[in-house]
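Need tokens for this chain, all 203 residues.
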Amino acid sequence: MFAAVAIVAAPAPAAAQTDSTLSLGGGVAHYHPIDDDAHDSTGFAIVYRFGRPEGWRPAVGFNWFTTRFDAQVGDTKAELGDLRVRPIMGGYGYTMRRGRVSVSASAIGGVAFNSFEPSTSARIAYADALNRVLLDVKAANSLVGRTEVVTWYDLNARFGLMAVVGYIAARPNVTIITDVGSEKRRLTADSLKFQVGVGYSIF
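Here are the structure tokens for all 203 residues:
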């Protein structure tokens, strides 16, 4: 499971959904990792945006997501477990509007607070293939970056539809701890992001 937050600033014509100071909603986000050892993930996404003019503006992001990784254990390939990436990012973006449609492009970066949950199959694989006890897998915090394009379409004064295409880069180190020692590996959690959602004008 994961949670992802898309933040969009857009200008406001009369009677448009973007006239609101704050809009909240939800949708579905899909992450497709570029690493062959990582699995796709899909889940609920919280959406919000602020009504702002066209042009350049600060942008922030909290694109939390989880990616399941496989790993080679001896001669066996097994599910290692789930990497949870919780970034806090800031940067800049540009918004333009044409009628009911607004498009925002942004580039942001920051720090990801990561954790890892090893799977039962990984513990079994370490015991069977290496005769070792897998005690834990710890993920270090890492730098993270994201670029994305967000499109909003205002249905009316209250509701807006949103679609996102983006790319997020995160490559944390993990430490695999067994009863005979530890080893470090770098995981590539870089992913393409696709998201759709609906926002409702709060005020």
